[in-house]
Amino acid sequence: MYSLPDLEPIRDFDAIAVLTSGGDSPGMNPAVRGVVRAALNSGVQVYGIQKGYSGLVAGDLRVMTSSSVRNIVQRGGTILKSDRCEAFKDPEIRQQAAANLKNAGIGALIVIGGDGSLTGAHLLAEESDIAVIGLPGTIDNDIFGTEDTIGFDTAVNTALDAIDKIRDTASSHERYFLVEVMGRNSGFLATHVGIAAGAEMVIVPEYQVNIEELGRQLCGNRRTGKGSSGIIVVAEGREPGLTYRLAQQLQQQGEDPRVCILGHIQRGGHPSGHDRVLASGLGAMAVSYLLAGYNDIMVGVSEGAILDIPLDSVIRYRKGLDPQLFELALLLHK
Ligand code: F6P
Fold it and tell me: Closest Cα to atom 12, ligand 1: which residue?
């Protein structure tokens, strides 16, 4: 477990609110539970906002009790529901959202979500007198300022569970399987899955690939006696259809590859033990940070500790894929 900061409570809130936003991730429920239980233990009322920023704009606020979060620590998805709210990019809509919170006597908001959701959180903190704290919740693990995000570990393990099974049939038929994992803009998930699955190749959006050359290289394995079965992990990337084009290339060179798109399976399922502990800790600490007077920050993890990072930096900078880790993913199958 991560070490927790020692925070002195200096601020009072009658009520705070919590919402989950953007693509859901396994562990959002234990994070909501952490927020609710920590707030109630400190004598602060908590509202759960339904369906992310859309619910905030619509004023869909519901009082949470300790029993509202009973029996959810192990459940995937989010009991608060989630969505991607385009309307929240409009400053007038954000003013409406802040007014809804103020009118309900709510002085602070905790937002659990990915980079788009944290951008909304920062803007709301800047433009209103609502104190806002973000928590990194995404299977992509692509949030600047934190080494880990809620849901990443579970998604890695979900993909591994599938790939271990796929490898059996890949090996029986001596085929390549191109397994597409999530990650439109980042290859963290693909790289971790690739290393842990012992993949023959990993393709991520951070590095361009030459499909023809890759096809030749993989087919060359058969000729050099290295065999031509195995797993190629492909991050979905920004360019739709890359996985199928690579399969076609292999086919043209005489291979008989198959494609398996893991898709939203990676977003569901019971959160892993790691994600439950991470999410519970971040949820509870978000409340401590609010009571300690913090605002416009994300609570994340680095070097074994829970810590705060200004939301401004979180949204301004891009978390880069560690090139050495990516190299490792490519190296170990050789
Ligand atoms: O941001 C999380 C994520 O799962 C990405 O990996 C993926 O590209 C995207 O969300 C899919 O979003 P949606 O569920 O809206 O299709």
Answer: 23
